[in-house]
Each structure stands twice: as structure tokens, then as C-alpha cells.
Design goal:
CATH architecture of the largest domain: Sandwich
Helix content: 25-40%
Strand content: 15-25%
CATH class of the largest domain: Mainly Beta
Distance between the termini: 82 Å
Low-confidence stretches: 13-31, 375-384, 477-481
Mean pLDDT: 85
CATH topology of the largest domain: Apoptosis, Tumor Necrosis Factor Receptor Associated Protein 2, Chain A
Number of strands: 14
Largest sheet: 4 strands, antiparallel
Structural class: alpha+beta
Radius of gyration: 29 Å
Number of domains: 3
Length: about 475
């Protein structure tokens, strides 16, 4: 039955000069240097014609001097491919070694069934420099590219997988591709998967993919402060669902529970979890100290707590929470037009002592803001008066509308999430951390062409942002009497 899944053409052009330079060099003939350019010179590019001829050469098997017999492991299936040793050895050092020690014209290759199924695609890439890839074929082709050390195809597939982490699939792709990258040592793909899961965790928690997360990946995620999710309570409930589905060993369950940030969960929910959470009741003794510290955190003022406890630790550090208590979405239509301002409110801090206190924030977006080093002066409002210039880059400034004695012992880290549409889904594309202005980040929207209506940074011609405010408490140094 034919597949209707979307495919993708992965290509690395194989030009006429490159191929025949290799061809001639292998036969010992000198390669003539290029003629110096002159006013009448031009380039005649017939590389597509060469690719078509190479494809025809593979299909017909004309001049073939090696037969590849591809055996699918644990099956009787055999795939026979008439190939040319020159092409194979030029593209793959592994094939070069195999062909040096072969007996006769046939080479027997044993491959896993998924790899055997796409082996003809893999060989075609060696001849033509491009390959049509479906999502369900990516890992098999990557395995072949890794095994036969075809670096260009390996890197291209890693990039393709990194760009399609949000593609629709009942079980998702990010977790399975992360596990594969970990197994093969592909650090770039591993990091891309981990970043995608971290920055889009709230949507992952609501999918079937969450229950397929392995123990090591779970603990790696729980240790991160850049997780993007609604609240810490949402994360606790997801960990509980994961534990019910996977039945982890006690040591893993306790490590997961100790990685949650109970200080970020309001007391009313902590009380409910102690009574209703089977996972917490089973391992209560392992987190008793953390719960006790969280209740102390919520009952005392942060200034008082900071005199006696180290508050610069993970239990008191917010993640990137999407809840209205911690920030606000901000959609900027036609972002290159002019400066935009926006106001919103957040809770002063995660402590129960600050639960009823609000901070009003003023945000300014400037599409053309001159870097600080190029400015001559500031206005009365300081950074809220940017110097605009046609050559500047976009910037966002976030400052409190007023000052307050309640700010003592608290600093505010701002996090700006930039959304994008990928494979039909809105996902977090970038995360920027700063204290007052994105100019501190240095690379805010670097390379983004917001003038283009089809810019990958825009959704329906608008820039989709989400501003997150993260209050951080500071330990106070108290002199001994």
C-alpha cells in the first residue's frame, strides 16, 4: 500500500567538474587548472544533466563491475544492486575497504530490515547527491550514512530531523530521535531534541510522547531551569502520570521527586498533593525536607528567609512558566512598522508571602534600535528611550512601571520566548534571557529578516512573543554578634 506521508528532498549537488576531477585523478592523469577569468567568461552548468545520466547509469547497470547483495537480517529478502566501484569508493571509505578485500564481483551486505528497505535510496544518493526522505525513513538512512561514513548525508539527515521535531506523529519524534542520537553519539541531534523538548514541554506533557520518555531523559529534563510549561504543578502531575505508566525503580522515582521545585507550587496545592498523590505518599520520606522548606518559604517573608537559608538554589528558582502570574503573550503585527509598547502585571514573587502583591511592567519593542555603543545619550527614562536608526536591530526593553520597597532582596530576570510555525504547529523557536533589555543577550533576532512576509520568524505577518518574569531572591549576609 503506497505511503502518503510527506517526504523531503535532501540534496548535495554533485557537479560535473567534481566528479570528473575525481575520475581523472584516480587514473593518474593531471588535472588542468581553471583558466583565469576574463570579461567574456561565463559558467555553463550542466550538473543536472550529469545527475540524470548517473541515475540512468545506476538504473541500467551499464558498465557495472560490482554486485551488491543486500540481505535483510532475520528474513529471506535479498536485494541485488548492480553498482560501480569507482562511485562507491569515491563516496564511502567503508566501501573502499570492502572492495579492496572482496573475492569476485559480488559483495554481501547484511543490514537490519529497516535499513535494507531503504538501501536503494542510500545507493542512489551516492550516485546523484540527493535523496527523498520520509520521517519514518530518517533513522534508517542515518544508520546507513553512519555505518558507511558518508558524512554529508549523515549531517544532512541530522539537520532534517532537527527541523522536523514538531511533525505530526502519534508517538512523536523528539524522544525516539533523542534516544537514537544518544545511542550513536550524534551530539548535534541530541542537543536539538533536548532543546525542543525543554522549550515545548507543556505541549509534550499532554501528548503520548511524554510516557515514552526514558528515566535518564526524564531526570535530565527535571534538572533544567529553561523548561517552558504552564506551572510547576503541571510538571508534578505529569511526573506522576509518567511513574504510573512506567513503574520506575524506587531510586528513579525518588530522584524525580527531589528534582521538582516545591517552592514554586502554592501551599494549597502542596497540601492536596500530600493527601491525594499516591506517588508522594509512597516516597514521602525522601522529600520531607524539601516540603518542609517549601512551607517555610511560603510562610515567611523572603527577606526573613534569606537571613537563615540559602535561597539561591533550584527549589527557589522559577522555570519559564506560561501562567498569567508569571508573564504574558505579546503579538506584534507588522513588527517592522514602528515602536510598540505593552503593559502587563505579574505576581511579585513565588512566595506565598508575595502572592497578593503585583508588579506592573512596561515593555517596549523597537524594530530598529541603535546598539548602546553607538548612542550618544539617554533620555530621562534611560533605556526606555532607545535611539532608533534604519540600520539598527530589533530590541525589547522590559522595566517595572514603579519602584517599591518590596523589591528589596529580589531581582527580576526576564525571559523572552519567540514562537514560530513549524510543520503546522506553533512552537518556541528561541529563548532569550536578560535583566532589562534584550540588548544584553546580544543576538536577539539576529539574522531575522522581518521585512519578508514569509519570514520564518513571523506567523501570519506577526511576531509572536511571550514575556516571562522570573523573580530571584538573594541570600542576605548577616553579621555575627
Amino acid at each position: 500500500m503506497p505511503s502518503h506521508r510527506p517526504s523531503f528532498i535532501l540534496g548535495v549537488s554533485l557537479t560535473t567538474m567534481v566528479f570528473f576531477a575525481h575520475f581523472v585523478a584516480l587514473r593518474g592523469a593531471p588535472v588542468k587548472p581553471d583558466f583565469p577569468p576574463d570579461l567574456g567568461s561565463t559558467v555553463l552548468n550542466h550538473s543536472m544533466s550529469l545527475v540524470q545520466r548517473m541515475e540512468g547509469l545506476l538504473a541500467a547497470g551499464n558498465g557495472s563491475d560490482v554486485t551488491l547483495r543486500v540481505l535483510a537480517v532475520d528474513t529471506d529478502e535479498v536485494k541485488v544492486i548492480q553498482a560501480h566501484s569507482l562511485v562507491l569508493t569515491m563516496q564511502s571509505p567503508v566501501f573502499e575497504e570492502l572492495l579492496l578485500v572482496r573475492n569476485g564481483s559480488a559483495v554481501v551486505l547484511r543490514e537490519a530490515s529497516d535499513c535494507a528497505a531503504v538501501f536503494d535510496k542510500f545507493i542512489r544518493y551516492l550516485y546523484c547527491g540527493d535523496v527523498s526522505v520520509r520521517l519514518d525513513q530518517a533513522i534508517a538512512l542515518h544508520k546507513l550514512a553512519s555505518k558507511y561514513r558518508v558524512r554529508s548525508l549523515q549531517e544532512g539527515l541530522s539537520q532534517y530531523m532537527s527541523q522536523h521535531l514538531s511533525s505530526d506523529s502519534p508517538a512523536g519524534h523528539a524522544v525516539s530521535w533523542y534516544n537514537y542520537a544518544l545511542l550513536t553519539g550524534d551530539a548535534a541531534l541530541r542537543d536539538s531534541c533536548l532543546q525542543y523538548l525543554s522549550w515545548n514541554l507543556s505541549s509534550v506533557l499532554r501528548s503520548q510522547e511524554w510516557l515514552s520518555v526514558g528515566e535518564d531523559l526524564l531526570l535530565s529534563l527535571l534538572r533544567r531551569s529553561d523548561l517552558v510549561l504552564q506551572t510547576e504543578l503541571e510538571l508534578y502531575e505529569a511526573v506522576e502520570a509518567w511513574a504510573e505508566s512506567n513503574g520506575p525503580a524506587g531510586e528513579t522515582a525518588r530522584a524525580a521527586l527531589r528534582s521538582l521545585r516545591y517552592g514554586m507550587i502554592p501551599p494549597r496545592h502542596l497540601f492536596r498533593l500530600q493527601r491525594q498523590s499516591a506517588l508522594l505518599q509512597t516516597h514521602y520520606e525522601s522529600v520531607r525536607d524539601l516540603l518542609y522548606l517549601a512551607f517555610q518559604f511560603h510562610s515567611a517573608s523572603p527577606v526573613t528567609l534569606a537571613k537563615y537559608f540559602e535561597v539561591n538554589c533550584s527549589i527557589f528558582t522559577p522555570r519559564n512558566y506560561l501562567s498569567p502570574s508569571w508573564g504574558s503573550p505579546w503579538i506584534i503585527g507588522n513588527p517592522t512598522r514602528d515602536d510598540r509598547s505593552f503593559s502587563f502585571q505579574t505576581q511579585l514573587g513565588p512566595s506565598g508571602h508575595d502572592a497578593s502583591k503585583r508588579v506592573t511592567w512596561n515593555s517596549l519593542f523597537s524594530p530598529r534600535w541603535m546598539p548602546a555603543g553607538a548612542r550618544s545619550n539617554y533620555g530621562e527614562m534611560g533605556a526606555m528611550q532607545p535611539t532608533r536608526t534604519d540600520g539598527g536591530r530589533p530590541r525589547v526593553i522590559v522595566t517595572p512601571a514603579t519602584s517599591s520597597p518590596d523589591f528589596a532582596g529580589v531581582s527580576f530576570q526576564k525571559t523572552l520566548l519567540v514562537m514560530a510555525r513549524q510543520q503546522g504547529k506553533i512552537v518556541v523557536r528561541h529563548v532569550y534571557n536578560f535583566h532589562q533589555s534584550t540588548e544584553e543577550a546580544g543576538d536577539f533576532l539576529e539574522g531575522a529578516d522581518l521585512q519578508r512576509r514569509v519570514s520564518e520568524y513571523l506567523i501570519d505577518s506577526s511576531l509572536y512573543l511571550h514575556v516571562v518574569i522570573k523573580p530571584l531572591y538573594h541570600t542576605l549576609l548577616v553579621a555575627k554578634k
